[in-house]
Design brief:
The chain is about 35% helix and about 25% strand. It has about 400 residues and is of the alpha/beta class. The longest helix has about 30 residues. The structure holds flavin-adenine dinucleotide.
Length: about 400
């Protein structure tokens, strides 16, 4: 009988297992693949996500430390520099495997090539039927990513329109790829894109000798994602020269949280809960935030004999994650609309010369400012970006 079984050894699953084991709970972490397993991702870890990790990543995990970012719009690049580290880049198979090792070192049992086939809840325990036998536990975390069948069965489907698609491809470059992340503004158009909710945004993240290009969009439109990828390859080629682009991968991306996040003994974390930023498609901050919340709630609940409830998990997620997702859903389309409706060259050119605007973005990436404060402080700067002369 375990205290907690975690199904899925992505960052949300491994880190929550690590924290539960550290707090003395008997913890089992299950993963259906063999590690290191491939994960379709651009590998950008914002500083605010790094700061959530109460552990030191192995030296080989970090590919690059990023201190700057640049916008790319219709082939033109607008560079913004910052003095502090804004993000690191990783190869997800290396990062994820390192987090599993940390969970094992903290005392969690780990079984790979073990799929959680069914999760059945009784009043006093949860039974997890796996491809390698059945296990009982007091609580279960579902951390199986966006396509989790168990989360769908126990917690219901994502809300209508709550699923999008992402693409990622590695581009080997001739020149050193540098230390700046590219933000490619594909979704900036004339109409306020509130209804679509998720204007397509691309990102290019430098690794040691290559660049990971990625784009996320609402719906399942692979054609537009492929066009975005081709456009990012052109931009990278102009700046750095390209040796080759590897085959792209596609993966589902949840764009809205599940209405229900927990039953009495089972809860969903990370992508399985639908926690992705509708501003950028970034998911690691919320995967790790939900892992931290879940581990804290279980540490308290596992002390109780009767009256257990995971309601506090839902309350904390609404406060710390879903409110921020809502703010991002509002501010993202506004920023895209400004770029799409005014002289984008002037707006983005002015942005690169506005230390306050760059500082706001840096503070958002570093986690020292909430999305709500970013909106309050960022929106008043928009007239300056639109109206100032670029001279
Ligand atoms: C193209 C693309 C690019 C992205 N780029 C970024 C980025 O640069 N930065 C960022 O922050 N986010 C990015 N994201 C989002 C990020 O990848 C996810 O938010 C993050 O991986 C979520 O972590 P997770 O642990 O919840 O799930 P996952 O990382 O998906 O892990 C789930 C794990 O569960 C396992 N599993 C599934 N079902 C079972 C089962 N039944 N039993 C046992 N194991 C199971 C899977 O094999 C997998 O290992 C990107 C997403 C996409 C699609």
């Amino acid at each position: 009988m375990y205290d907690i079984i975690v199904s899925g050894a992505g960052p949300a699953g491994s880190y929550s297992a690590c924290l539960c084991a550290k707090s003395g709970l008997r913890t089992l972490l299950l993963e259906r693949s063999i590690l290191p397993r491939k994960k379709c991702c651009a590998g950008g870890v914002l500083e605010r996500a790094v700061r959530l990790l109460d552990l030191d990543l192995d030296a080989n995990v970090i590919e690059r430390e990023l201190k700057g970012f640049h916008f790319v719009r219709e082939g033109r690049q607008y560079q913004c520099k910052n003095a502090c580290r804004l993000a690191v880049t990783v190869r997800r198979e290396v990062f994820d495997a390192d987090l599993v090792r940390k969970a094992e070192a903290a005392g969690a049992d780990f079984m790979q090539e073990t799929e959680a086939v069914m999760i059945g809840e009784a009043s006093d325990r949860v039974k997890v039927v796996t491809s390698r036998g059945d296990f009982d536990s007091r609580f279960v975390f579902i951390a199986e990513g966006a396509n989790s069948r168990n989360a769908k069965i126990l917690l219901g489907s994502f809300p209508e329109g709550g699923m999008g698609l992402g693409v990622a491809a590695e581009i080997q470059t001739i020149e050193d790829p540098g230390e700046s992340a590219g933000i490619h503004l594909f979704g900036s158009g004339k109409a306020l894109p509130f209804r679509r909710g998720f204007p397509m945004t691309g990102a290019t993240f430098p690794l040691r000798s290559s660049v990971m290009a990625s784009a996320v969009a609402a719906g399942k439109d692979t054609l537009n994602l492929n066009l975005a990828l081709a456009s990012m390859k052109r931009d990278v080629s102009e700046k750095l020269g390209v040796v080759k682009m590897h085959d792209p991968c596609f993966h589902s991306v949840p764009l809205a949280p599940r209405t229900r996040l927990a039953t009495r003994r089972v809860l969903a974390i990370g992508d399985s809960a639908g926690f992705i930023s509708p501003f950028s498609g970034e998911g690691l901050t919320y995967a790790l935030t939900s892992a931290v919340i879940a581990a804290k709630v279980i540490a308290t609940q596992s002390q109780l004999d009767g009256n257990i409830s995971l309601r506090d998990y839902e309350v904390q997620c609404r406060r710390q994650i879903i409110s921020r997702m809502r703010a991002a859903r509002l501010i993202g389309p506004i920023l895209h609309w400004v770029v799409g409706n005014f002289d984008s060259d002037r707006v983005l050119g002015n942005f690169t010369k506005d230390p306050k605007a760059i500082d706001l973005c840096a503070r958002l990436a570093r986690g020292s400012m909430s999305m709500r404060d970013f909106a309050f402080k960022g929106v008043p700067r928009i007239p300056y970006l639109i109206l100032s002369s670029t001279e």
